[in-house]
Amino acid sequence: MIWDLHCHLSGVDGKTVDERIAQLMVYADRMGVERLVFFMGWPFATDPTPEQFRKQNDQVLQAISHWHNRAFGFVYLNAKYVDESIAELDRCVKNGPMIGVKLWVASRCNDPSIDPIIKRAAELKALIYQHTWYKTGGNLIGESTPGDLALMAKRHPDVPLICGHTGGDYELGLRAIQDSPNVYAGIGGSDPTAGITEMAVRTLGADRILYGSDIGGRSFSSQLAKVQGADIPEVSKRLILGGNLKRLLTPILKEKGIKV
Amino acid sequence: MICDVNVYLSRWPFRRLPCDTTSELVSKLKRNQISRAYAGSFDGLLHKDIRAVNQRLYDDCKSQGANLLLPVGSINPALPGWEDDVITCHEQWKMSGIRLHPNYHEYELNSPEVKKLFAMAAERGMFIQIAMRMEDNRTHHKLMQIPDVNFEALPGLMQEQQNLQVTILNGMKSLRGASLTRLTENPNLTIEIAMLEGVGGIEKIMQQVPYEQILFGSYFPFFYLESSLNKLKESQLGMEIEKQITWENAQKRFTNT
């Protein structure tokens, strides 16, 4: 059972969202990926206005509309626009089919002004994915690090949070989140550098690690290899490839009447 | 049966990698149907005693990887006396190719030494591999930020040595569009798939690069070996093309060099 936490519609051939997701499902079938979570449309907008993130969410809503129980959506928000983001959460999650939240690089997540969004997402049982990186050449102004996320996690100890890309530089990222039990490592979206998954299991335990691909810019191949090629027990691989994500999503999927 | 053109022995300078001992590496390659692997050495990046690096590489391949590992010697044309390293690789150790890291060794491909090196390799019938990058530049050690190799001078260099086979390693993350076309217009230029990304990566790159110029490379053990193996499944190539990419293209180009 493989559940993919991290899928995009950008970087894929096809003029419409329907064409793009159909093509991605062909590749998913080849690689045995059973369920996929999509967020953001195209073109990528690093600091979207409410109008822009609503448009991107409409693209995802359209894409997943023909793939019930297989493709899920996380709503893309911008923490600079708290009121509009909460309204969008209600539109796409409370009153729509989406099951999580995606926060990217518009503003850093250590800023407490994000808290109303986190609280509202938690009320709706929406899973929160925060993009993070530690870039050697320096992050974007609003780009969060795993350290930023660890600070935010302390303010919301009961809310599961996903540390996207495990900070890119996973040797730093894993250390930054190791003492934040409600933070999960999303290991997708970086080179398939050997040893990442072994270190993640040593540092966090297998039940805090989530596979994701970051397609279409990345591939299922390279990202699945991080788990399939790791020297860890088979039971751990099963948790990372799908078991953990299924467990985290079960409350909201059940609420929406989706079979897990 | 797979020929992997992009394998490294010894230790990555910044961290231990799973399978970074030759015995573990050989064992994993064998378990995954890799029956031939062209291996360079991570020591070739930073060591100045390149001859000792190549001696160890040769010894390791011979003692632990016979019939599987083929040594590809590191050459640093910025070092005094580098010509002797080429001669030793060819005549003493019978290496069929050499591997270059211009960015780690701080020279450009348009330098006079590279021109001479290409001529030497062509005269001896050796192939050349050039690694474009070794690591995502966003995860470099702060004190070791190494830019990608600039390939602008490569087409001109290759034009002067018409039978020379050149392979770009770890190039497919950044080489795209016109810059890739300009390089692959020369049929003696090959690329390998270790850093190729995007869904259905090989299928898509074949729209731009003839499959005769695509080789299987894994960049193992820095990358999980399964990454490149999976790419053969994610793209539907058909048996004939897959056989060429995974075996025949490399054999045709490198075995008799």
From TrEMBL, chain A:
Keywords assigned: Hydrolase, Lyase
UniProt entry tagged with the keyword tRNA processing: no
Pfam families tied to this protein: Amidohydro_2
Domain of life: Bacteria
Gene Ontology BP annotations: secondary metabolic process
Domain Amidohydrolase-related: 44-248
Record has Hydrolase as a keyword: yes
InterPro entries the UniProt entry points to: ACMSD, Amidohydro-rel, Metal_Hydrolase
Gene Ontology molecular function: carboxy-lyase activity; hydrolase activity
GO cellular component: cytoplasm
Name the UniProt record assigns to this protein: Amidohydrolase
Species in which this protein is naturally found: Gimesia algae
Lineage, broadest ranks: Bacteria, Pseudomonadati, Planctomycetota, Planctomycetia, Planctomycetales
UniProtKB/TrEMBL annotation, chain B:
InterPro entries reported in the protein's UniProt record: Metal_Hydrolase (IPR032466)
Domain of life: Bacteria
Protein name in UniProt: Amidohydrolase
Lineage per the UniProt record: Bacteria, Pseudomonadati, Planctomycetota, Planctomycetia, Planctomycetales
An example Gene Ontology molecular-function term: hydrolase activity
Keywords: Hydrolase
Xref: Gene3D superfamilies: Metal-dependent hydrolases
